[in-house]
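Final report, closing paragraph on structural work. Over the funding period we assembled a curated collection of sequence-structure pairs, and we close with a single example.
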Amino acid sequence: MTEPTTYGADWSAGLRRGDEAELEAWLALAQAACDEADALARAAFRRDLRITTKPDRTFVTETDTAIERAIRTRIAAAHPDHGLVGEEYGIEAGDAATRWYIDPIDGTHNFIRGVPLFGTLLAVEREGELQAAVLSAPALHERWWARRGGGAWARGTDDDAPRRIHVSGVASLADAQLLYGSGHDIEASGRAPGFHALLGEVWRERGFGDFWGYALLAEGAAEAMVEVDLWPWDAAAPTVLIEEAGGRVTDLGGRRAIDSKTFLATNGLLHDEILKRLRG
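Its predicted structure, as stored:
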């Protein structure tokens, strides 16, 4: 992924690697995969779950693995030459020109505890550039999606039709709402020494975490979202959504990347200022 000289929907459209019909077909595949994932997640939510602990001491449920298997099967049937990068089953055909990033349940700990803020994240990449994505939150009955040059969209159960969404136009820290995952983890990482001071400079701060913070940012309900300890499958789908909504994403070093374990997403207007503050 290359360093941006700018940001915004027009710039994002220039990152398209394929014709519109192809990207729309990928998006339709991702939507169908998320329909299946939603059904599996709803059937298990707030039920007795079989939970195991992974080597990194995070939890995984049988629903996480069932969803990822279902998605992999669906993608492989449609595109046997595509690569897969998933949280539970790793990398398959990792050198393929087109690859899918799969997070079967983003917010597994919420899912386990009965908190409805969890969702399936899917994104497709061609030649190193992310092209289309879906974020689906089955317990909230909400979904967000985007493709390069096609805008960012959302739909909930109360919407008669999809809504095109945009980041906010707030340009002052004093008026900004800042979201983050775990404040403790951000401070303990040592990667954002100015984080605590930044909380005192913004209008409002909340620790929403996971996909939810990025969805709120893309809808213009917040101006920034910061996290550490992210994996590529956590960051891939939010990247497409936020960039197509007119925002900007980088790691905390200012590099546009999804594999450096830190992530800052903003409305673009406040990005450089927040990066400077986080660096202390």
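The chain has a mean pLDDT of 94. DSSP finds nine helices and 15 strands in the chain. We thank the funder for supporting this effort.
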